[in-house]
Amino acid sequence: MTERATGGRPVDEIGTSDAPQRASHPGLVVEPTDPDHPAVAALLAEARTLYPVDEHLAPGLPISGDHILNPDWHGDVAPPPPREAAVLIALGTSPSGELGVVLTERAGHLAAHAGQVALPGGKLEPGETPAMAALREAEEEVALPPAAVRPLGLVEPYLTRTGFMVVPVLALLTERVVLRPHPGEVSDIFLAPWVRVMDAAFRSEEVYTLEGRSRRFYQTMVGERCVWGVTAGIFKVVSERLYRP
User: Fold this and answer.
1) Cβ atoms of 118 and 234 closer than 8 Å
2) How many C-beta atoms lie closer than 10 Å to residue 184's C-beta?
3) What b/e readout covers 113-146, taking b as 16+ CB neighbours within 10 angstroms?
4) N or C end of the chain: which has fewer CB within 10 A?
5) CA dihedral 51, 57, 63, 65 (to 10 degrees)
């Protein structure tokens, strides 16, 4: 998910209409996680403290986000009420046996955030819980079957500059999957090493100018790819909550 946090798509953009284009992509093979792997076992132990996956988060929970990094961004103007969204942090294993998280690269032709690295996700539809929305978006964006995913729990929400209250849904892959991008919005899919996006040693705080004002953000380099902004911020929250190097 990027800061645009789009939700459901028109019927002619999903389903069987994009099957030929999806099939033309070689696909990303991701193996299931091994519960006996030390990193996975440690994560499962920490995940017991997460919020229940089949519920909405109760109001009043601690909220991380861009408002902490950039408290003066909105000035004296009150920001609009936040809109609910969710992202899926799906962990699987690479063919070489390395634990990783599924990330996407947004299509280059998109008007907003083209080429940006993101977690699968988007806004909640009426009647959805965060887990339902995250699983639906992951299936639409990267063809991840919900039946191959074991949600573990919900992490504290992350408030974006553009007004989305994003709930991260931590999950493990339980089956071997071949992921393929939605041709309308995803150009690539990759598995980022879990250690790389979790370890604070690889994370930096940067500043750039946006709309005439300085904006602070986090970033982590994964090879030649830059994971930054909301996605890097969410990883920081998750690492502080769950990661034990």
Assistant:
1) no
2) 17
3) beebbbbbbbbbeeebbbbbbbbbbbbbbbbbee
4) C
5) 100
- CA gap 156, 38 in Å, rounded: 25
Structure tokens at 123: 């806004």
Q: Which helix (H) or strand (E) holds 219?
A: strand 213-222
Q: What's the pLDDT tens digit per position in 190-238? A: 999 999 999 999 999 998 887 777 888 999 999 999 999 999 999 999 9
Find the helix or strand (DSSP H, E) in which 191 lies.
strand 186-193
37-57: pLDDT as tens digits = 999 999 999 999 999 999 898
In the structure encoding, which two tokens stand for residue 30, read together?
A: 């991701």
DSSP state of 16: G
Q: What is the pTM of this model?
A: 0.87
Buried b or exposed e, range 87-96, using 16+ CB within 10 angstroms: bbbbbbbeee
